[in-house]
Amino acid sequence: MIPVKSRIIDIYKETDDIKTFIVEKTINEDPVPGQFYEIYVRDAGEIPISIASWNDGLIFSVKRVGAVTEKLHKLVKGDYIGLRGPYGNGFPEHRRFTVLIAGGIGLPPARSYIEYWLSKGAKDMQLLYGARTPSDIVYKKLLDYWSNYIDVQITVDRGDSTWDGNVGVVTTIFNRIKNKDADFLIIGPEIMMKFSIIELKKMGVSDDNIYLSMERRMKCGFGICGHCNIGRYYVCKDGPVFRYSTIKDIPEAIH
Questions:
Q1: Per-residue pLDDT tens for 149-158?
Q2: Rounded to 5 degrees, what angle do the CA atoms 226, 253, 187 make?
Q3: CATH label of the domain that carries residue 148
Q4: Which helix H or strand E contains 129, and what residues bound it?
Q5: How many C-beta neighbours within 10 Å does residue 121 have?
Q6: Which of 155, 100, 99 has the alpha carbon at shortest distance from 131?
């Protein structure tokens, strides 16, 4: 699929290294929560980025971590990017109480799930969100807004004089989980996913009720480059969201 030219409608600075881009919707197919697009930046290349929202254009929140994202962060309102997608298998349908566990830049994919199901009238959700520091928290206004409808718990690894909330990694607020008989969606760094799984297992959560977003491993979006394979699966085609019971016995799945 050739990238479709799409204009940047607006850009918001979330943190020192994360920006949110609102892009005109030039692809007719709607995504589902948890899917991703390939974003092409001229003279830099392509990167896979999960969709954060698609109500008023396509919304992506991107952390500056390499050459492509560095170039993307230098673009301004009115510039153009290329889009391919949506790709992959997203989060499961909302069927009962759901706990979303997000770390760092894992919050944008969680946003897609929260906003979509809130729009359908579902409020039986809880968000546990961890950031490195208070200044690394993204979507501050949205977090306040969501707290009017669902339970939102936030923690930071390192606090400062402005922070009066919990200090510690996200698993330190697992004692605030409201319902253990739930679906658990984990999105974030693999080390966070690993220890979240350990704690959920201690709580008696079934492997079938844990879902992982493995988006960090993706590259081409087609399953051609082999960059994202885990065992017999390709994250970009079979994922990026996997039920834990499907991949738990694959050694390279969670390091």
A1: 999 999 999 9
A2: 100
A3: 3.40.50.80
A4: strand 125-131
A5: 6
A6: 155
